[in-house]
Design brief:
The chain has helices spanning 45-53, 72-77, 86-90, 104-107, 126-134, 156-175, 202-213, 227-233, 257-272, 294-299, 344-360, 376-381, 392-401; strands at 5-6, 8-10, 23-25, 27-30, 57-61, 81-83, 95-97, 115-118, 138-141, 183-185, 188-190, 194-198, 217-221, 237-238, 276-279, 305-308, 325-328, 331-334, 368-369, 382-385, 388-389. With 403 residues, it is an alpha/beta fold. The strands form five sheets. Strands 6-5-4-7-8-9-20-21 form an eight-stranded mixed β-sheet, sandwiched between helices. It has a seven-stranded mixed β-sheet with strand order 14-13-12-15-16-18-17, sandwiched between helices. Helix 6 (156-175) runs parallel beside helix 7 (202-213) and helix 6 packs antiparallel against helix 11 (344-360). The chain is globular and about 70 Å long. Bound molecules: nicotinamide-adenine-dinucleotide. Nicotinamide-adenine-dinucleotide (NAD) binds next to helix 6 and helix 7. The site of nicotinamide-adenine-dinucleotide has 30 residues, from helix 6 and helix 7.
């Protein structure tokens, strides 16, 4: 175990015997996200102020928050130093906060022992994980934070999925040729549009709430029967099927072939009568289940819209193309990528709060940064540490690829 480091790191040995050895603060570095289309930033000025009050030095890369409408000046006013490039940013940095996973080139700029926290998307970034292992970087993956009540404030999957569900509903409304609410006008009465949400987890529930606020008739379906109560509490209709596929940890399990056929039939009928379908169904670590087949799309009304929130993990609609919008049988099928990035001001704010909560676990009662990581949340989310990949499924994937 290496020595703990405090938010005020002691510089060198106190050989002079002075009571107050010179101290240098622990540096938190926040780079500008480089992934195409990424507009979020890992911290915001309000949180920077809290970090600097706690004794950290915060460095922000020039324009890191510009796309989310947090200009450098606001960070500076909150006590951050603005670094013009990666060298000034990372020199002496102990902690790096990110939204998207680092690249191999990013990792090569981190000093040994640097703690990196953010989304790691490990299964799709094995080369980077191997490099972090080899360079003895410590990486915490926010996707691995367990969904226990104590971890709710650091649950970045939930904060970002909430935004995703909101944006999907707005996108559906924007692309629909109909009004969503019922209107009684001198020019006649307009019937409300029907919005169907498949998958009523965090994103699905937010999509339901948003579509309801826009005045649509909302129906929803999830394989977890427990979701029914939440759906109904939002004023939407829950489509019941004689299946309960609640698996471990509140997540859905995979359905049997017979269950899948039953589900297909009920889902197809509901999809065919909907004006907007928003799909969010996912099974962690696996390809998304196909809920809307090519044949079902052919049964839909011309002008109907599908927003496939599972596009990046294979899609819930057989025809979805990730990152593209296509029209088939008169139906618009949108496969959006990175929906949370479309509301970057608020998603950055929520994400920054998640990170601030997470960082509080890394500091002990005396204000020192812990290095033994015994807290169950740290244990679960520790991906790479001290030259080892600590997350078993990622380790197995790396062994498979022999990296
Ligand atoms: P997710 O993104 O993994 O999946 C989205 C939804 O798709 C889930 O509700 C899932 O049941 C559903 N789904 C999967 N296969 C399906 C299929 N074939 N047909 C229809 N629906 C299908 O889920 P999530 O939003 O991350 O949430 C997963 C669970 O975790 C939920 O029970 C949620 O309430 C729970 N949760 C708990 C906490 C907490 O306690 N801190 C925080 C967040 C989420």
């Amino acid at each position: 175990m290496s020595n703990p480091v405090t938010a005020q790191e002691v510089k060198g040995n106190n050989q002079t015997g002075l009571k107050n050895p010179s101290a240098i603060p622990v540096v938190i570095a926040v780079p500008k996200e480089q992934a195409p289309g990424e507009q979020r930033v890992a911290t915001v000025p309000e949180i920077v102020q809290k970090f600097t009050k706690s004794g950290y030095e915060v460095r922000i890369e020039h324009n890191a928050g510009a796309a989310a409408f947090y200009p450098d000046d606001l960070y500076r006013a909150a006590g951050a130093k603005i670094a013009s490039g990666p060298a000034g940013l990372l020199d002496g940095a102990r902690i790096v906060l990110r939204v998207q996973p680092p690249t191999v080139a990013d990792v090569d700029q981190f000093a040994e022992g640097t703690i990196v926290i953010g989304f790691m998307n490990a299964a799709n970034n094995l080369e980077t994980i191997a490099r972090m292992r080899d360079r003895k970087i410590t990486a915490f993956s926010l996707e691995l934070v367990p969904r226990i009540s104590r971890a709710q404030s650091m649950d970045a999957l939930s904060s970002q999925a909430t935004a995703g569900g909101y944006v999907a509903a707005i996108m559906g409304a924007d692309n629909c040729p109909k009004f969503l609410p019922m209107l009684t006008t001198a020019a006649g009465t307009i019937r409300p549009a029907t919005v169907l949400i498949l998958g009523a987890g965090v994103a699905g529930l937010m999509a339901i709430a948003t579509a309801k606020r826009l005045g649509a008739l909302v129906e929803a379906y999830d394989v977890r029967r427990a979701a029914g109560e939440q759906v109904r509490s939002l004023g939407a209709k829950f489509l019941e099927l004689e299946i309960n596929a609640e698996g471990q940890g509140g997540y859905a399990r995979e359905l049997t072939p017979e269950e899948k056929a039953q589900e297909q039939q009920m889902v197809s009928a509901a999809v065919a009568r909907a004006d907007i379908v928003i799909t969010t169904a996912a099974i962690p670590g696996r390809k998304a289940p196909v809920l809307i087949t090519r044949e079902t799309v052919a049964m839909m009304r011309p002008g109907a819209v599908i927003i496939d929130m599972a596009a990046e993990s294979g899609g819930n609609c057989e025809l979805t193309q990730s990152g593209k919008t296509i029209r088939e049988h008169g139906v618009l099928i949108i496969g959006p990528q990175n929906l949370p990035s479309r509301v970057p001001f608020h998603t950055s704010q929520m994400y920054a709060k998640n990170l601030q909560s997470f960082l509080s676990l890394l500091v002990d009662k005396e204000g020192k940064i812990v290095t033994d990581f015994t807290d169950e949340i740290l244990v679960a989310s520790l991906l790479v540490h001290a030259g080892e990949v600590r997350h078993a499924p990622t380790r197995d994937l790396l062994k498979g690829g022999k990296s």
